[in-house]
Design brief:
By secondary structure, the protein is an all-alpha fold. The chain folds into three domains: about 65-200; about 205-355, no CATH class; about 480-689, no CATH class. It has a two-stranded antiparallel ribbon with strand order 1-2. A two-stranded antiparallel ribbon has the order 3-4.
């Protein structure tokens, strides 16, 4: 085994040359080394950015979303009437409100944008702000002036209590019209909302969107977007919408000025992947140096990545992961393991500013981003590292935490002894009895409960192959437990020299039938050669340079696979009933044929010998006809006087008779020679007559 493992690991490098002809299989760390591409999760990075710069942003900028502007105008006017004219009758107040509603609905229609002052509804002096607002808006729409319309200047000069409902509106519309000064006007809009002026339409919140879209001062745009995201529910849309092109157009002087703003500097660290930022920020202290290290590492500049990591006050999850990546690349496995363990320790701490979500993994083959926690990739890498160190128990633990069923089955099946396997599955026994969770509405077969159950079944099949039937019974699913003891009892009877040859032959024949037809369920290997259903294993298909001879039932292996096809526990031991040829799929068929060969030799009754040899041929004739020919010759030569033997001699191959096919393709036991005689009578009714 010490020789086979390095060769096996070396062969993994050539794995992409193998042909895939199976359904999508779980990516493998053992065979692919790095099956996932790790990428920065920009949304998570933006969330961290908001936490990092929180102390640089105002915290009193939470605004309401508001309603439609038409509805808001009517609501504001109604509130003003009720506020200023409590002494009026309800009918009088309603008349004022209805007149304004009719006017404003028509005024904001599609037919006309502006109205004449003479068309304005009656508005007492207390409602002057509404009159001034309408007049100013008409001037703005009709004349597009270069200065603030005089009605609005007058409105803004009123005492605060006299302009409660239209101050926010005026500042917002000034920002919309005067784009060169929009930052000032939108700031005034939001300040007015903070001071308690009515903002029924949610204009303060809308001003953030328009400022990001039309603002010319990129530093102000970034700051206001961060301010909006930190205090309101924009789902990162404002920060994500800031155009990279707007930043790239800055000359070095403008860019350096942007870097000197602490909020903009942290924002550029995660959004500007160009070398310019990393070059210009080297002598400036900032908190997102680990993201610069990530981009440098992605570019293959490990020295630069280390420089940025050294700038950090303390390690972060991202910097620790990068250090582990560099250590693995340089072959420093002890350091890589140390850093990966440190990553897991940091990830266990609750720190909103440093979460594992900062990284996400993508399947290298499919290009699909996986939803799992990045810690699972760390567990997978540690599992691979432990395999290379030959610490298979530790490797199994890491692959189990990673949810890597394919790698876990490979380690437990190929590299662990049965005792080690049992010890491991007993350590996760609790999970096996936990309900399997759902993922996207279907059971998650890569969850710990599902994997624990699969491993128990794997251990049962492994124990059956090694003749440990008590262990097999302990872990075997209930529907197959009876078959274990039936098989064992038949084998014991077949080995009992005190019995007659026919009795022993019948027992071995019945055991062979169980092995032939239920061998996959009782003893199938998870990977090669059987590729137990539900796990198609690793690279099940054969190398292009390896060939299988269906006549001889043998493999001609290429040099690589001939070298690695050495002894593995439970696979290529001394040839007996435990042997599993590594390149012979459905290995249990061959073991069933071996039992049939023994049974045929023991049988004294010719018809029983004929039936057994017919069964032995059925085990091998499809995949190994040359080996099946042994049973054909025995059928003809040892049972020539039987009707079955004569028919086989005549047809020059195994006869296909429905009654006998039903028998040899079932696991119903044949209990006596009388049963054999009845079968032959049913198979050849005409001859018996």
């Amino acid at each position: 085994m010490k020789k086979s493992l390095p060769l096996f690991l070396a062969s993994a490098v050539a794995a992409p040359a193998l042909i895939a002809c199976v359904p999508y299989e779980q990516p493998s760390y053992i065979f692919d080394d790095a099956p996932y591409s790790i990428r920065l999760n920009k949304d998570a990075a933006l969330k961290r950015f908001l936490i990092i710069v929180k102390d640089q942003l105002p915290s009193d900028c939470k605004f309401n979303e508001g309603t439609s502007t038409l509805e808001a105008e009517i609501i504001d006017f109604t509130n003003a009437v009720n506020r200023y004219f409590p002494q009026k009758s309800e009918k009088e107040r309603k008349q004022l409100i209805d007149n304004f509603t009719q006017f404003i609905t028509s005024y904001r229609g599609d037919d006309e944008i502006c109205a004449e002052i003479s068309d304005y509804p009656e508005m007492p002096g207390e409602l002057e702000e509404f009159y001034l607002f309408l007049a100013g808006r008409d001037i703005l729409m009709r004349e597009a002036p270069d200065t603030i319309p005089f009605p609005w200047e007058k409105l803004l000069s009123l005492p605060p209590e006299k302009r409660h409902y239209r101050t926010v509106w005026v500042h917002f519309m000034l920002g919309n019209h005067f784009k060169d000064d929009l930052h000032k006007h939108y700031d005034n809009c939001r300040e007015a909302a903070k001071k308690g002026f009515a903002d029924t339409a949610g204009l303060a919140l809308r001003s953030y969107i328009l400022e990001e879209r039309y603002g010319q001062n990129i530093a102000r745009v970034i700051r206001r977007a961060a301010e909006a995201e930190a205090n309101n529910n924009f789902n990162l849309t404002l920060l994500n919408n800031i155009s990279r092109q707007r930043i790239d157009q800055l000359d070095d002087g403008q860019y350096f000025a942007l870097i000197n703003d602490p909020v903009c500097r942290e924002f550029l660290a995660l959004t500007d992947t160009t070398p310019r930022f990393r070059r210009m920020v080297r002598n400036i202290k900032f908190r997102s140096a680990d993201i610069c290290a990530y981009y440098a590492c992605e570019a293959g500049d490990f020295a630069e990545a280390k420089e940025f990591i050294a700038m950090l006050e303390k390690p972060t999850l991202l910097s620790t992961y990068i250090e582990a990546t560099i250590a693995r690349y340089n072959g420093n496995i002890p350091l890589a393991v140390k850093k990966l363990r440190q990553f897991l320790a940091l990830a266990a701490q609750i720190n909103p500013a440093d979460t594992p979500e900062l990284l996400k993994k993508m399947d290298c083959e499919s290009g699909v981003y996986e939803g799992e926690d990045i810690r699972q990739d760390v567990y997978g890498i540690l599992g691979l590292t432990m395999v290379m160190r030959r610490d298979f128990m530790e490797a199994a633990k890491f692959f189990y935490d990673a949810g890597q069923l394919s790698d876990l089955e490979h380690v437990t099946e190929k590299f662990m002894t049965l005792d080690e396997l049992v010890k491991f599955i007993d350590s996760i026994e609790t999970d096996a009895y936990t309900e399997i969770p759902e993922r996207d509405g279907v059971p998650d077969f890569y969850s710990k409960p599902a994997i624990a159950r699969k491993l128990r079944y794997l251990a049962a099949r492994r124990a059956f192959r090694e003749g440990k039937y008590d262990l097999a019974d302990k872990y075997m699913p209930k529907e197959f437990q009876k078959l274990i003891w039936d098989y064992q009892n038949f084998i014991k009877t077949g080995n009992n020299t005190a019995l007659s040859g026919d009795e022993r032959a019948l027992a071995l024949y019945n055991a062979a039938k169980i092995l032939r037809h239920k061998g996959m369920e009782l003893s199938g290997t998870a990977g090669k050669p059987d590729n137990f259903p539900g796990n198609f294993g690793h690279r099940m298909t054969e190398c292009q340079d390896c060939t299988y001879n269906t006549m001889l039932g043998t493999w001609t292996l290429c040099q690589t696979h001939r070298l690695i096809n050495n002894t593995v526990p439970g696979f290529n031991a001394i040839k007996d009933h435990n042997t599993v040829p590594a390149h012979q799929r459905f290995h249990y068929r061959y073991l069933a044929a071996d039992l049939a060969l023994r049974a045929g030799t023991l049988a004294e009754n010719e018809e029983l010998r004929a039936l057994i040899n017919l069964f032995g041929g059925e085990c091998l004739k499809m995949r190994s006809p040359q080996e099946a020919d042994i049973f054909y010759k025995r059928l003809v030569l040892d049972s020539r006087s039987t009707l079955l033997g004569k028919l086989a001699d005549k047809q020059r191959w195994f006869p296909v008779i429905k009654v006998l096919q039903d028998e040899i393709q079932s696991i119903r036991p044949v209990n006596s020679l009388e049963d054999v005689k009845n079968l032959m009578q049913q198979a050849f009714p005409a001859w018996n007559q």
